[in-house]
Amino acid sequence: MEQFPLLLPFDRTLHTLDLSAFTEPRRTVCVDLGCGKGRFLLNHAARHPDEFLIGADRLIHRLAKIDAKARKMGIQNVRLVHADAGLLVGCLLPDRSVDVFFVFFPDPWPKRRHHKRRLFSPPMLDAFHRTLKPCGTIHIATDHADYHKVILTLFSADRRFAPAPPCEPPDEEKTDFELIFLAKGKRIYRCSFASLAEPASGNESRPATANPVSMA
Ligand SMILES: C[S@@+](CC[C@H](N)C(=O)[O-])C[C@H]1O[C@@H](n2cnc3c(N)ncnc32)[C@H](O)[C@@H]1O
Questions:
Q1: Which of 55, 98, 126, 128 is most buried, by CB atoms within 10 Å?
Q2: Of the residues 33, 143, 174, which should be mutated to test ligand 1's pocket, given the most ligand atoms within 8 Å of the CB?
Q3: What is the pLDDT of residues 85-110, one digit of tens each?
């Protein structure tokens, strides 16, 4: 563990993570799900030392590189979790512990037979709602128009969430995938949702409020 000190250990019996050492009551807690090579995670953390950020990915070699880079940059407010996003949000994060989830360029799994592997699903929305503080937010970006529509439909059918203003990171914090897509002239779709303390009233589902932001 000496070479990998930022990795938060958890035992496989699945107790929730103890974040108390990092999160005073008023500190903003952010989770970057599928943090990849960590460009957003590290630059956002460096620019917001008052926030506490967890970067999660299932690829350990990516986390190892982020770990080394964070320590080289002197970043104190980042910790890493090597786990599937479903496991992290479904089991490992405590109830009402997160202010902001960032889900930037989740794998779109375009083939129909692979759709079940997509991150966003009704059980995942249960997990987001359990772990978000009231009024906590999920910011999502994707280059995949169909997946974007699916995400909008899922959230708009769920009265525990309301559309929120989309988040466009400044250039210094854009993720590696966003830079690749921008260089290819691809359109980026963004949407954000706030978790409501009380579900919205009414019987009909809300209209899907698309927030596509064309970066082309
Ligand atoms: C398309 S990349 C995007 C990376 C980064 N967010 C970016 O925008 O540059 C998706 C990342 O999510 C990770 N990932 C995919 N599915 C995951 C899951 N279920 N749990 C945790 N990480 C996942 C992959 O290993 C990869 O690093």
A1: 55
A2: 33
A3: 999 999 999 999 999 999 999 999 99
